[in-house]
């Protein structure tokens, strides 16, 4: 069959006269309008068709009710220039654009290859959620349209009940007949044999598991403790991402991501407007879904800033370590983890554009945390989510911050190309994570001295270790 389209067509004329914006179109689209909704725009300049032969058409959809926005451009294939001489363009509304309903203002811009650009009047429309997408409650099994239907239904159900009773009586008679001829002893022997077989198979499986099991025995505990006492480290590898992150909350997940478009690099570790909950959900999953982070600002470079709170993550994973030292400030907490946290590695799968390669650059925030000091670490120009991976460091100074909140964080900054010349205002991220190693030695707890010179915390530590050894020996 031929493709069907629900088309809204509008003519926009660019003049110097004062305009009424947004222009009402008295149109609406519904969420169940899948692959059929089309916007057609006829561009005019002073009443004449605008030649779009060497132009980039940009449409910005501003979801007023939801507070969200998305950008479409003809350079990336989102908008089709149907007739460049006549100034006619089409844009098919993708299915996922109906994620937000309510009033929508569509801002219109045209860029030319010679550096000129035009701001056309915006126009408005409505996106509405279709009834079928509202998860309606399950309908009753029968819908009675009129009383005669109800009467016929009652008669039909009564006849069915009569048939069911007859079948039920016949079934009871059959059961009574079967019971009379039933051999109880044979059934008991059959059940006994089945239970015996099942138990023997289970015991055999348990024996195999016991043979292969890695038990924590008194001997293994003694070996681990002995090696630890004589200098060998206890090593744990940790991995962090945005799983469970709730926007504007640090209860479920202590890390943060922000984004923006600016001409300069950020001068602190918490820059950028926090990304949306939907974007958090996407970049927390290591799958094929991709989150698009963009801005409608005309100039500058798009960026995404990740702040990984290693210190708070350590406090949640190893509360006993902090309870032992009892630090009073965040600086003292940082001193605890600086000796044991190593090999911090950031990885993000990100790119700029799926059709044209553009550079995306990864930076890390140095420990001094001063001004716009960022260290360039890695870059690529992929057209798919390729990995950017590099080592990062803990922030150890307040720097430009007004508080000590940045201490103990590893901060990463991904930056795109200059939008003023390339028209690229988007960073696409599939997944982001940080991995680090906790390498803990007994020597991390004290500075070697003679026994009478040791500080009270060190002596308390040895007493605590001795008490734990006694408890393990008592438990076997």
Sequence stretches where pLDDT stays below 50 over 5 or more residues: 140-144, 447-455
User: How many separate helices?
Assistant: 9
Radius of gyration: 34 Å
Could you give a short account of the major beta sheet? 6 strands, antiparallel
Beta-strand content bin = 25-35%
Return the average pLDDT rounded to an integer.
81
Order of helices and strands: EEEEEEEEEEHHHEEEHEEHHHEEEEEHEH
| Fraction of residues in helix | 25-40%
What's the overall geometry?
flat
Number of distinct beta strands: 21
| Largest beta sheet: strand ordering | 13-12-15-20-17-18
Q: From the helix content, strand content and strand pairing, which structural class follows?
A: alpha+beta
**End-to-end distance:** 77 Å
Describe the structure in brief.
With 476 residues, this protein is an alpha+beta fold.
Describe the structure.
The protein is α+β, with helices and mostly antiparallel strands and 476 residues long. The protein contains nine helices and 21 strands. It has helices at 147-180, 184-212, 218-229, 277-283, 310-317, 319-325, 330-338, 419-422, 456-475; strands at 6-14, 23-30, 37-45, 48-49, 55-63, 68-73, 80-83, 88-92, 102-112, 117-128, 234-240, 256-262, 273-274, 291-294, 301-309, 341-351, 360-364, 375-380, 386-391, 409-418, 426-440. A six-stranded antiparallel sheet has the order 13-12-15-20-17-18. Strands 1, 3, 4, 7 and 8 form a five-stranded mixed sheet that branches. A five-stranded mixed sheet has the order 2-10-9-5-6, with no helix packed on it. Strand 3 and strand 4 form a beta hairpin. It is flat, with a radius of gyration of 34 Å. The chain starts with 5 loop residues before the first strand and ends with a helix. The model is unreliable at 140-144 and 447-455 (pLDDT under 50).
């Amino acid at each position: 069959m031929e493709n069907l389209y629900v088309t809204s067509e509008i003519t926009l004329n660019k003049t110097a006269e004062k305009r009424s914006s947004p222009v009402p179109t008295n149109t609406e689209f519904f969420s169940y309008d899948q692959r059929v909704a089309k916007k057609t725009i006829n561009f005019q300049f002073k009443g004449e068709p605008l030649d779009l032969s060497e132009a980039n058409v940009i449409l910005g959809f501003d979801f007023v009710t939801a507070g969200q926005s998305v950008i479409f451009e003809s350079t990336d294939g989102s908008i089709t220039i149907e007739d460049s001489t006549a100034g006619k363009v089409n844009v098919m509304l993708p299915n996922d654009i109906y994620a937000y309903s309510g009033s929508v203002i569509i801002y219109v811009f045209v860029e030319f290859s010679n550096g000129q650009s035009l701001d056309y009047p915006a126009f408005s429309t409505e996106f509405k959620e279709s009834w079928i997408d509202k998860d309606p409650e399950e309908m009753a099994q029968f819908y009675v349209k009129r009383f005669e239907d109800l009467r016929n239904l009652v008669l039909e159900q009564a006849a069915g009940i009569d048939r069911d009773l007859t079948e039920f009586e016949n079934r009871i008679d059959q059961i009574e007949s079967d019971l009379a001829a039933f051999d109880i002893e044979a059934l008991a022997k059959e059940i006994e044999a089945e239970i015996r077989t099942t138990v023997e198979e289970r015991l055999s499986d348990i024996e195999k598991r016991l043979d292969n099991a890695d038990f924590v025995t008194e001997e293994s505990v003694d070996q681990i403790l002995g090696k630890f006492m004589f200098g060998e480290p206890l090593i744990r590898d940790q991995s962090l991402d945005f799983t469970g992150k709730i926007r504007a909350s640090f209860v479920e997940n202590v890390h943060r991501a922000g984004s923006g478009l600016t001409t300069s690099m950020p001068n602190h570790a918490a820059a950028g407007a926090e990304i949306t909950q939907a974007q958090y959900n996407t970049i927390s999953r290591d799958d094929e879904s991709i989150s698009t982070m963009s801005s409608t600002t005309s100039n500058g470079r798009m960026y995404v800033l990740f702040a990984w709170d290693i210190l708070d993550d350590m406090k949640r994973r190893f509360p006993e370590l902090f309870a032992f030292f009892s630090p009073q400030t965040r600086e003292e907490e940082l001193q605890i983890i600086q000796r044991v946290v190593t090999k911090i590695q950031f990885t993000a799968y990100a790119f700029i554009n799926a059709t044209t390669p553009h550079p995306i650059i990864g930076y890390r925030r140095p420990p001094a945390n001063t001004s716009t000091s960022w260290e360039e670490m890695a870059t690529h120009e992929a057209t798919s989510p390729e990995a950017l991976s590099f080592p990062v460091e803990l922030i150890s100074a307040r720097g430009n911050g007004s508080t000590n909140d940045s201490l103990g964080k590893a901060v990463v900054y991904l930056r795109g190309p200059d939008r003023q010349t390339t028209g690229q205002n988007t960073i696409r991220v599939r997944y982001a994570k940080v991995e680090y190693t906790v390498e803990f030695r007994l020597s991390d707890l004290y500075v070697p001295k003679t026994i009478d010179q040791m500080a009270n915390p060190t002596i308390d530590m040895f007493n605590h270790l001795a008490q734990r050894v006694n408890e393990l020996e008592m438990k076997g």
